[in-house]
Specification:
Elements (H helix, E strand, L loop, with lengths): L2 E5 L6 H10 L3 E6 L2 H15 L3 E5 L8 H6 L7 E4 L7 H6 L1 H29 L3 E5 L12 H21 L5 E7 L1 E3 L13 E3 H13 L4 E4 L3 H9 L3 H4 L6
Parallel strand pairs: 1-2, 1-4, 2-3, 4-5, 5-6, 6-9, 7-8
The structure holds NADP nicotinamide-adenine-dinucleotide phosphate (NAP).
Length: about 240
């Protein structure tokens, strides 16, 4: 009974990713706030791939509910993938702390809460994989999105520490660093086509790297080199650039 739990399954990446796992015989738990849509998606996955797929209500920001959410899963998963994320509005975050807090909670604090609950279970069972979808945005602050980016930076560091902790228990912890991805998160924004991935591209990259037991993956692959160059620009120059 192999179940993969997708947290933030309202993401456009969740459907192609769930398809890949289901195609390879995994049962699927879809969890996020848009429960009715997830019920329809789960039904579709069950019919297409003849696996068990179930929907659950999950709010990353509601940390008080996390233990009972995990306890309510009929079978404990062999793997978890976090797609939950909120870009928020940088200007709103600067003016209203509750907006900044929501961005921090969905991208970081809430994930620390639920992942620690799951990590304790996997560590005790000495099996499992934890995949956290972070962002290349977390590798350098820019004025256009530094609240979101700083939460992602925290999440990336959290995952590397967790990887170090769980290595001896045989639990894989993988960090995903997407660049631009054509999803509803960046709907209406113009991004350079050639470096913008589709949700299907990212799903494929995640599945392949996880199955190979990798520690991290950039999607698309060349973002690793883009970020290497970008983070080498000295702060004295970067602060003067109009980085969007
Ligand atoms: N698109 C990009 O260019 C890009 C780039 C780098 C990294 N990423 C990261 O990739 C991941 C997937 O994002 P995406 O691009 O697929 O955007 P998306 O379609 O907007 O998906 C993000 C999902 O997060 C879920 N979410 C938001 N608040 C939540 C909460 N409080 N509790 C639980 N789930 C919550 C939402 O589902 P519900 O509404 O159903 O809760 C939403 O569908 C995110 O972590 C994002 O930061 C995206």
């Amino acid at each position: 009974m192999k179940y993969v739990l997708i947290l933030g399954a309202g993401s456009d990446i969740a459907r192609p990713l769930a398809f890949l796992y289901a195609k390879h015989g995994y049962n699927i738990y879809l969890a996020s706030r848009s429960y009715d849509q997830l019920v329809r998606d789960a039904h579709d996955i069950s019919l297409r791939f003849k696996v068990d797929a179930q929907a659950f209500k999950f709010d990353a920001a509601d940390v008080a509910s996390h233990q009972s959410f995990y306890d309510s899963l009929p079978y404990k998963p062999i793997g978890v993938i976090t797609l939950a994320g909120a870009l928020g509005d940088q200007k709103q975050s600067e003016q209203k702390f509750t907006d900044a807090k929501n961005v921090i909670d969905v991208n970081y604090t809430g994930l620390v809460s639920i992942i620690h609950i799951i990590a304790a279970d996997f560590e005790q069972r000495r099996e499992g994989f934890i995949v956290g979808v972070s962002s290349v945005a977390g590798e350098r602050g820019r004025k256009s999105n530094y609240v979101y980016a700083s939460a992602k930076a925290g999440f990336t560091t959290f995952l590397s520490g967790l990887r170090n902790r769980l290595h001896s228990a045989g639990v894989q912890v993988m960090t995903v660093h997407p660049g631009f991805v054509r999803t509803k998160m960046i709907e209406g924004r113009t991004t350079p086509g050639i470096i913008t991935a589709s949700a299907e591209d990212v799903a494929r990259d995640i599945f392949k790297a996880q199955q190979l037991g990798k520690d991290f993956v950039y999607s698309k692959w060349f973002w690793r080199f883009i970020m290497m160059a970008f983070t080498m620009i000295p702060e004295s120059i970067a602060k003067k650039l109009d980085l969007k």
